[in-house]
Each structure stands twice: as structure tokens, then as C-alpha cells.
Amino acid sequence: MTGDQRALTVGLLGLGVVGSGVVRLLHDHADEIAGRVGARLQVGPVAVRDRTKPRDVEAMHALHAAGATLTDDPSAVVGADGVDIVVEVMGGVDPARDLLLAALKSGQSVVTANKELIATHGAELLSAAQEQSVRLEYEAAVAGAIPIIKPMRESLAGDRVRKVLGILNGTTNYILTRMTEEGADLEPVLAEAQDLGYAEKPDPSADVDGHDAAAKAAILASLAFDAEVTRDQVFTEGIRDVTATDIAHAHRMGYVIKLLGIAEEVEVDGQRAIGVRVHPAWVPAEHPLASVREAFNAIFVQADAAGALMFYGRGAGSLPTASAVVGDVVPAARALLAGEQLPRVSVARKPIRPIDDAIVQYYVLLDVLDEAGVLAAVAATFGDHDVSIKSVWQEGEEDHAQLLLVTHAAREGNVQACAAALEELDVVRSVASLMRVEGREV
């Protein structure tokens, strides 16, 4: 470092779990970061909702060492003279959207870990950044420390991505791992996850019902296919209906159950359309995603030239997510020093394929009467709806039986109509479970 090299100031919006990690990394790795940037990065003002709230001790020590102020006034950060980069780790859409738009329009570069915000207003924020020729970075918004945004946006820029499959939520992966390895039902494992801090108390719906994964899937689809995809366009099912019986049947057939975020681009009526969905699925035991355990995340990318790629690591937590945030701060700082403008990105308006038109395989579990002619009646119903059966397994129990079927790839709407018709058959007591299969035919 030479004496005439300038320092850049990084202001923060939020000082929770991730914000504390960011402050600690900027302090603890200050010399290494300065060498990589070509300037020292100093933590500037930090705006929080409640200054009296207890904070991470190490983060507060780092703030004190930097001479940074803690304030409840976001205008001390957003649009403030001397604040070069705004890091947003407060979460939520409001007031984060208005604050970041104001920061970008004032000429400040922005780094955010806010998946909900990017998944709903990412195109608007990107447009504001491009108008002011400043940076908008959001690596930490998807899968924590796993580098996926930059590889999708830069490393694969010369390729064509066909499909992205991801385990995008560590909480549900932890729950499904425990259910798989212990044969447990969901509720006791969910309670354990809440006690460990993986799932929110009292309402774990963001994780368990798939909303967190859906926001990340929208972001990945937007990047993979150069399109504007928002959270509300993602078909979403959570894991509440997954049972220990489902998991046992999957294991018997050579599969494991994972909550997947899936984005793919397909040809529909002569034009390219995007399908984005989040749901539990059977995954072949030999597929790379099947071995991802506990609270880890993984993203599997299929591209024309690069082939199959997988990105794996911790998807949440203070320091893993903070690592991704600081990893975005560094190139934003370099761009400021070099006077680099944000590259213009062309975002196309592409139709979203309705879930009924998705081509999928299915696992179907039927509770049926144990009598002659049942299998013929069931098979005829599948045939009437253009759904082909790949494999069948049956087990009798007193006067009824369980009939497990795995289909070949078929149109989603046809499978759902078939399931409704099966419910009406006299020989079918119930459609006990219906779950998609990923990783082989489709």
C-alpha cells in the first residue's frame, strides 16, 4: 500500500447475523482485502432499526476499532457523502427496495444478500444501476457462500444453460436428511430443526412451504435464461405432505427425496419459454444431488458446452453468507477505482410455461382393494390420460393393498387429471401420495 492510495467507505443497512459477519470479515481481513482491491475498505456508518438491541460482541468491537457510527437513520448511509458502497443485509422488501433505489440513483454501488428483494424487484434495481453506471451485486442472495451468481452471469456467458436443479434451502434438506436416515415423520424433525435454529419459531413456513427456495429459483432462472422471472411466477410446493412412508418407498426403488428448485428453458409453439418450479421430488440415489446431506445446499447446472456442473457448500449462516457479501464488495470497489461501468445486460421478455405443461415423471402411491382386476383398472386409467407406467410394486395388507407406480415422462396436467380419475375408481380407496421424479428421463 502506498500513502496516496485512497480508502473506500462501506456503509451497512442492517447489523443482524449476516451484517455482523460482514463487519467482522472487513475488519479481520482488512490487509488481504486492501491488497486485492488496491485500496483500504473502511466500515462507515451502520444503520439499524433499533440501536438498543444487543449486538454481536466481535462485530461491535470491529465497528469501534473502525470509528464507525451506529445509527437508526438510514440517510446516514443512503445517499450520504463519503459512502461509496452500500451493503444491504436488513432483509424484506420494504423499506429495502426504496432505500436501495435511492442509493443507486445517488451513484452508490450496492451489494445485497436480499433474495426476496432481488426475486421481486431485481430488474428494477438492475435498471437503476445501469442508468447510473454503478454496480449491483447479489451473490449472497442465493445459496450463501456458494459461488453461483458470477459463474452463471460470467463464466457461462458463452454457453447455453438448459436446466438448473438445486437444493436451495438448508432447513428442508436437514429435515429430509433426518427423516431419511432415522425413518422419522416430519413434525418431530421440524421441532428439532427449530430448536437448533435452522427453522424459524413459531412460523417455519418460509422454509417448509418452499417460499425461500422459490425466491432463489426465480433469481437463478433470470440469470440462466437472460429473462425477468419473479417470485410469483414460480410454482411452489413445500415438504409438509412428505411422509416417512414416501421416503421408505423411495429408498426401496433406489431414490431419495429432496426439495428441489428447478428452472428450465423449453420450446413451446415455436418460441422459448421458461418453466420454474419448487417441489419435493424423488432423485436417483446415484445423482450428485442425492448425497447432499444436512443443511448444505447444492446447485446442478446442465449446459450445452460445459455439460453438467455442480456447486456445493453452506447455504446460510453468518460467516458463510458474509463471505459472499464481502466477495461482492471487492469487485464493486475495484470497479469504482477503475471507473468501470456496469456492463449492459439484455433482459428478454419470455413467457412462463404453465405448470400443467411441464413434462415430468411421477411416483404415485395408491391404497387399493386387494382383489382381482385392480391393476387392470388402474392401468386403463393411466392409458386413458396418456400417462405410461414405467414400474409397479404391490404389497397386500388384509383386505387392501398398496400399489406404487413410477411413470414415464408425461405432461403434468395429464398426470393430475389421471390422479383425479383414479380417486373416482371403486377399487381405489385413495391416492395416498403423488410426487415428481427428477434426474433421469427429464
In brief:
The chain is of the alpha/beta class. The protein has helices at residues 17-28, 30-37, 57-66, 96-105, 115-132, 149-155, 170-182, 186-195, 205-208, 211-224, 244-252, 318-338, 374-384, 412-424, and strands spanning 7-13, 40-47, 70-71, 85-88, 109-112, 136-137, 161-167, 235-236, 255-268, 271-284, 296-303, 307-314, 359-369, 389-397, 400-407, 410-411, 428-437. Strands 7, 8, 9, 10, 11, 12, 13, 14, 15, 16 and 17 form an eleven-stranded mixed sheet that branches. Strands 3-2-1-4-5-6 form a six-stranded parallel sheet, sandwiched between helices.
What does this structure look like?
The chain has 442 residues and is α/β, with parallel strands linked by helices. Helix 1 (17-28) packs across helix 3 (57-66), helix 4 (96-105) runs parallel beside helix 5 (115-132) and helix 13 runs antiparallel to helix 14 (412-424). The protein has helices spanning 17-28, 30-37, 57-66, 96-105, 115-132, 149-155, 170-182, 186-195, 205-208, 211-224, 244-252, 318-338, 374-384, 412-424, and strands at residues 7-13, 40-47, 70-71, 85-88, 109-112, 136-137, 161-167, 235-236, 255-268, 271-284, 296-303, 307-314, 359-369, 389-397, 400-407, 410-411, 428-437. Strand 9 and strand 10 (271-284) form a beta hairpin. It is built from 14 helices and 17 strands. The model has no long low-confidence stretch (mean pLDDT 93). Strands 7, 8, 9, 10, 11, 12, 13, 14, 15, 16 and 17 form an eleven-stranded mixed beta sheet that branches. A six-stranded parallel beta sheet has the order 3-2-1-4-5-6, sandwiched between helices.
